[in-house]
């Protein structure tokens, strides 16, 4: 098989890039190691920056997002039993975020890809990018007992943190930066109305909590838990009780409980791989970087990577220029590191760190106290949360 751009990974990065390429008349093939239903069964992000919303509109895949997405002009930070509102729109000249689940984004893009008739190969084993340092890269994979080959002009690794693309790069050609946090997020999804109309990020001596949602009838909640914890330790009742303990009464009393239909623990890490291009192999999304979800940046960083990369491919094929492809890595990393900083800052400010000494705890508390007391600091928080310019 031969194509112009071979994409590894059918998450939001790969699907968004594939759709934009197809609309631009650039042939592409998408390969994933699992199937559609498995991918749609993963519960992840919920907050879209305006840039991601606009990318979905450019991809002509935003009908459901525009109809069902929930625009949010602010959120609350709960501290010492009180709520402190962060007025995103007021602090950023009207900019906002939209609540719309990554699962729905992924489904919308999968449906468009199927309607396009674009080639997607699911359940492909041992996917491997080859000869990407030369003029004619290709991908090998196994399926139905046979080994297959896809020849391409370019390969894009959109295969997430545990994917094969970054691992195919010679270690001497890659520099990685990492911070692993000593806790995870226990997430719960239930078909109950949200406790409040906006998100609540809770700081508490017992640990961080987050009240989020997917719609006005579906809620998403998180609790900070130690890395040694297991989801089997948490009955729904135990989750609801602990959530209430960590929130102000006005929020806890408004929580509507109900049976969870998804409950899982996600580890938290900050990670960046540099550079993001190796000859004719490009990395995008979680394949190149990971942020702790406290700043709601993971999915949104994937969107800006795809913005830069799609612009580069469009310029290569339509204008016979490679300037944007050459600038991809540096341009993407500039925005990535600002989001890494913000996500690290939100995480250290809002979580409890068991290994903190007394000084460290006071510094983290003072960081939050100053932020809530200062219009300048709230503005800085707000402009990062709604998303820095592309
Ligand atoms: P993805 O990981 O979504 O997709 C990668 C795809 O590549 C997958 O379909 C996988 O099957 C495939 N793949 C992997 N290895 C392969 C191989 N060897 N061969 C072929 N295919 C391969 N972000 C937020 O903003 N808020 C959150 O609350 C949040 N929660 C998260 C919870 C978890 C458990 C995880 C892992 C991430 C979370 N994120 C969150 C971040 C998440 O939303 C990512 O930023 C987003 O999925 C990035 O999309 P992709 O880059 O497409 O990677
Ligand atoms: C979510 O709804 O999954 C969500 C919202 C905000 C975050 C992280 C996750 O910062």
Describe this structure in words.
By secondary structure, this protein is an alpha+beta fold. It contains 12 helices and 20 strands. It has an 8-stranded mixed sheet with strand order 6-5-14-15-16-13-17-20. It has a 6-stranded mixed sheet with strand order 8-2-1-12-19-18, with helices on one face. Helix 9 (298-319) packs antiparallel against helix 10 (323-350). The chain is globular. It binds arabino-flavin-adenine dinucleotide and P-hydroxybenzoic acid. P-hydroxybenzoic acid binds next to loops.
Mean pLDDT: 97
Question: Helix/strand/pairing class, anyone?
Answer: alpha+beta
Percent helix: 25-40%
Count of strand segments: 20
Strand order of the largest sheet: 6-5-14-15-16-13-17-20
| Count of separate DSSP helical elements | 12
Enumerate the distinct ligands.
arabino-flavin-adenine dinucleotide, P-hydroxybenzoic acid
| Unreliable sequence segments | none
Separation of termini?
35 Å
Q: Main sheet?
A: 8 strands, mixed
Radius of gyration: 21 Å
| β-strand amount | 25-35%
Overall outline: globular
Write the layout of secondary structure elements.
Layout: E1 5-8, H1 12-23, E2 28-31, H2 36-40, E3 47-48, H3 50-58, H4 63-68, E4 70-72, E5 75-79, E6 82-86, H5 88-91, E7 97-99, H6 102-116, E8 119-121, E9 125-130, E10 138-143, E11 146-151, E12 154-157, E13 175-190, E14 200-202, E15 209-213, E16 219-226, H7 236-246, H8 249-252, E17 260-274, E18 277-278, E19 281-283, E20 289-290, H9 298-319, H10 323-350, H11 358-373, H12 375-386
Parallel strand pairs: 1-2, 1-12, 2-8, 5-14, 12-19
Antiparallel strand pairs: 3-7, 4-7, 5-6, 9-10, 10-11, 13-16, 13-17, 14-15, 15-16, 17-20, 18-19
Helix pairs in contact: 1-6, 1-9, 9-10, 11-12
The structure holds arabino-flavin-adenine dinucleotide (FAS) and P-hydroxybenzoic acid.
